[in-house]
Amino acid sequence: MKMYVRLLALVFALFVASDGISFADSAPTSPDSYPSPWSAGGPDGWDDAYRRAHEFVSKLTLLEKVNLTTGTGNQADRCTGNTGSIPRLGFRELCLQDGPVGIRYKGIGFAQGLDLGKRKTSGRIISFSNNPDLNSAFPAGINAAATWSRSLIRRRGEALGAEFRDKGIDVQLGPVVGPLGRDPAGGRNFEAFGPDPYLAGVAVAQTVEGTQSSGVIASVKHYILNEQEHFRGGISSNIDDKTMHELYLWPFADAVRAGVGSVMCSYNKINNTYACENSYVLNRLLKNELGFQGFVVSDWGGQHSTVASSLSGLDMTMPGDGAFNSTYGSYWGGALTEALLSLAISPFRLDDMAVRIMAAFYKVGRDTKQVDINYSSWTNETVGPQYWRSKTGNTTVNKHVDVQGDHAELIREIGAKSVVLLKNKGNVLPLKKPSSIAIIGEDAQDNPKGPNACVDRICNVGTLAMGWGSATAEFPYLISPAIALEKQASADKTIFSNVKSNWDLGAARAAATNASAAIVFVNANSGEGYQTLDGNFGDRKNLTLWNGGDELIKAVASVNPNTIVVIHSVGPVLIEHVKTHPNVTAILWAGLPGQESGNSLTDVLYGKVNPQGRSPFTWGKAAGDWGITTLVNSSTPQPQQDFTEGSFIDYRYFDHEGIEPSFEFGFGLSYTNFSYANLTVKPQDVGPYEPASGTTKAAPTFGGINYDPLSALLPEGFKKIPGMVYPWIASPEIPDDTGGPDFPYAAHNRSAQPILPAGGAPGGNPELYKVVYVITVDITNTGVVSGTEIPQLYLSLGGPAEPKVVLRGFGEVPINSGETKTVAFNVTYRDLSNWNTEAQDWEVTSYPKTAYVGASSRDLRLHADL
Ligand SMILES: *[C@@H]1O[C@H](CO)[C@@H](O)[C@H](O)[C@H]1NC(C)=O
Ligand SMILES: *[C@@H]1O[C@H](CO)[C@@H](O)[C@H](O)[C@H]1NC(C)=O
Ligand SMILES: *[C@@H]1O[C@H](CO)[C@@H](O)[C@H](O)[C@H]1NC(C)=O
Ligand SMILES: *[C@@H]1O[C@H](CO)[C@@H](O)[C@H](O)[C@H]1NC(C)=O
Ligand SMILES: *[C@@H]1O[C@H](CO)[C@@H](O)[C@H](O)[C@H]1NC(C)=O
Ligand SMILES: *[C@@H]1O[C@H](CO)[C@@H](O)[C@H](O)[C@H]1NC(C)=O
Ligand SMILES: *[C@@H]1O[C@H](CO)[C@@H](O)[C@H](O)[C@H]1NC(C)=O
Ligand SMILES: *[C@@H]1O[C@H](CO)[C@@H](O)[C@H](O)[C@H]1NC(C)=O
Ligand SMILES: *[C@@H]1O[C@H](CO)[C@@H](O)[C@H](O)[C@H]1NC(C)=O
Ligand SMILES: *[C@@H]1O[C@H](CO)[C@@H](O)[C@H](O)[C@H]1NC(C)=O
Ligand SMILES: *[C@@H]1O[C@H](CO)[C@@H](O)[C@H](O)[C@H]1NC(C)=O
Question: Has 183 been annotated as catalytic?
Answer without folding.
Answer: no
